[in-house]
What does this fold into?
Amino acid sequence: MTLHVRDATRADYPAVAAVMQAADPRRPVTAELLEVSAQKVRSSPRGLHLHQWVAERGGEVVGFAGVAQWAGAHHPDRYHAVITVPPGHARRGVGTALAGAVRAHLEARGAREVRAAAAEDQPHAVAFLIGRGFREVSREVDHVLTLDAHPEPDRARLPDGLRLVALPDFIVAQGRTAALEAFRATFNAARADEPRTVPAAPYTAEEIEEYLAHPLCLPEGMLLAVTGAGEVAGLTELWLDPAEPARLHTGLTGTARAWRGRGVATALKRAALEVARARGTREIWTQNDLTNAPMLAVNARLGFRPQPALIQFRLGEIGPADVEATYDE
It folds into this structure.
């Protein structure tokens, strides 16, 4: 049957989610999440770009591709690409056809750098990117903690001068504007200091509101270490899984520079485990760059075990001499 590549629409998202789930069951996605993500890009005041395609054969969606710009790594000439083909349709020209559509689109837009990723245990996907000129720039590793197979850790102990508070309670105590500004300051500082191959664009106040309104955000899992003056010394995040109610994901864990090296991150991660156990959570997943030695050590102490790495690739490059395009008030 003839293969047809066309622009994707919202009506395609259920089929696209099924394709993505079949291609990588470890990273579940739903039609709702696809729609939320697309709307987030399209509504951004940074003027971010998004374009998506599906490949059809005999009326069946057999592949998906997309290019997008991300607020957290924004430069007007940098794009992130994904091409997904489920195993039952692999090596039948689907990926090649989608790659052609992506390449033509990015060339027309004058893209200077394209990012993509492939799991290390999917050699065909790795070879697909390398064969098109992409080169590896970093590796991120999922770590999993199975709670019922691991003894409960010691309770969280923060340094003197800090107290543990969930973000919703912090907002009540400080007022929404002050609380979210304190959260944003440490959030942006932690992201800026994470090992990464793309400079972190700081989140604006509006983007933090949008970030916390995500349907997978778990408010009681947004845990903060705060000072008596209302400053956020550290934070960790728990997020819901789109498909498995008994699984949670760790988002950002970070400490303000003045409080580093004092056990704040470890105490916060321990507190997050207590929240997860109280919810009846079976597994917690977290992801870290392989060069993030301090956080890898924290996770190892808590019993997290590594999974196959997600390899980050780059085609072209926006060098450090380029001024990063950021947006702030």
